[in-house]
Structures are given as structure tokens and as C-alpha cells.
Amino acid sequence: MINRNRPTTSDDALTFMAEYGRAYLASGGPTSRLEEALSGLGHKIGYPTEVFATPTGIFVSCVDKSGANHTTLSRIKDGGINLGRLCWLEGIFEDVYSQKISITQGNKILHSKALQKSPYKMWQCFMAAFLSGFALSITGFTLFWPALASGLIATATWWVAGPGTSHRISSSIFRDFMGATVTLALAALCQLLLPAPFEAYSIGGIII
Predict the structure, then answer these.
(1) CA nearest to 196, candidates 204, 205, 187
(2) Directed axis angle between helix 144-161 and helix 122-141, to 10°?
């Protein structure tokens, strides 16, 4: 059982801020907002904090009651836009900041298996990618077969830039480049087989 009355140590604070920052950036959160939020939390709980965040890593340093510095550096290995998870993370942060839960409890939530799992099943992700590509093309060009192809291209692009290569290629920039290459190549092939505006085929993959 967690003792809510146990004083928050600098290590507790540093662990929470580093893990929250890593998860926040991995979900596509803005660096400036993160730096401001964590610095504010550190000062509120009595540990002056400095934060430097980039899309690929976060540096957190806080000063404990004795004046000693504690520092940690976390690398963002895999990231992408996940608005649902961002909202969930910000809810946890607000609960910690307003002292509805302790930092220790916040740490337990951030390290739970629920955070590591995707909130969506694989078939749902495939369907979302396909429907987004199809809808963007059909509403913009009103051509059924190019829209169908756009949905399939969007799905292929999502797979190549995401789960299909994430375990073997750590660089999200290179995965995005591969996804763009797939989009352009498949769109060019489809346009050759069934003449239609190039954008009608490629719009889904480009948005993905």
C-alpha cells in the first residue's frame, strides 16, 4: 500500500518527470509546453527544476533540499502523434500537480503495463488508415477506384512507417522517408495502370 503522507524525495520527482516527459514526447507532445509544465511542478514541490526537451530526448535536472543536483537523460526511441494518450498523460499530470494523487502513485501509473500497450487493436489501426485514405480521396476527387487505391496506399504507408519496421529501424525520420517513398511509388504505379490525378492516389499516404 502506498503511503500518501510519505514525503516526496528528489529521486521520486526526477523519476516521475523523466518518465512523464518521455511518454509525452513519444506521443507527439510539444517540447515547450512540456518544459514549462515540468519546471512548474518541480518548483511547486520544492525541487527547482530545469528541463531541456527535444523530439528525440529529454534532459531533467533538479536540486534537492541539500542543494545537490540530480540529473537524468531519457531518449525517445519511437514516437508518433497519439492525441488520446496525450490527453491521458495530461490528466495524470494534472492529478499530480493538484495533489489528487502523489508523485509515487503517478510513477506507478506511468510504469504500468497499460501505458505500454496500444489503446487500439491492430485491425482497428488498419481500418483507420484505409478509411482515412479512402475518405480524403473520394471527397476531394469523387473517383471511386482511385479512392480505393488511396485507402490501400495509406494502409501500406502506415505499415511501413510504423509497426512494420519500428522493431528493426529505430529512426522515425528514416521510417517516414520509407513511407513517403512507398506512397509515391505506389501512386505512380496506379496512375500508370488507371489514369487519374496523381493526388487522388497519393493523398492518403501523404496525410499518413
Answers:
(1) 187
(2) 140
